[in-house]
Request: fold
Amino acid sequence: MKVLILYGSKHGCTAKCAYLLRDKLGNADVMDVSQSTSVALDDYDAVVVGTPVYVGQINKAVSRFCNANLTALQEKRIGLFVCCGLPEKAMEQLETGFPRELVQAARVKAYFGYQYEINRLNFFEKALMRLLGKHRDEGDIRHAVIEDFARSLTGSCH
Ligand SMILES: Cc1cc2nc3c(=O)[nH]c(=O)nc-3n(C[C@H](O)[C@H](O)[C@H](O)COP(=O)(O)O)c2cc1C
Reply:
């Protein structure tokens, strides 16, 4: 089965998770949606889409790509994942962020964790984090979830 992993990422966590998933799958192509002008979806049996969440919103390039390719994506085996700092809101943010049709069509949906480094954030992001009382680098990438996701995506039963 040929798998494409598409992601958007502002500060690198979602990109890192996309490559960790690729390693678990053994063989998959990985693409940053914001860098790809055209994506040959026809070449793939399964497509995974990953996004971070910023101020309640999924990545704009991811959202644009999903909406523009909704029909083609619905014909694939779909996996969706989010990276975000609020584990308790992760699945809600995934389900409201991605187009409804894609959420319904998805075979696997998961929260892969989060990561940020204060020094890599821009001025406004730093200010927001300061307001939220976040002064240190933080992260929790869920390797076991990524492994389960890879197994469920390629497995033969739902
Ligand atoms: C300025 C800022 C705003 C954020 N807003 C949210 C949010 O609304 N909800 C959430 O769950 N996580 C939020 N996060 C956490 C990020 O989603 C998390 O760090 C994610 O791993 C970033 O992924 P990326 O490195 O691929 O961009 C925020 C982080 C920053 C720095």
The chain has a mean pLDDT of 95. Strands lie at 3-7, 29-32, 46-54, 57-58, 77-83, 106-116, 138-141. Residues 9-14, 52-56, 83-86, 89, 93, 114-116, 121, 125, 128-129 surround flavin mononucleotide (CB under 6 Å).
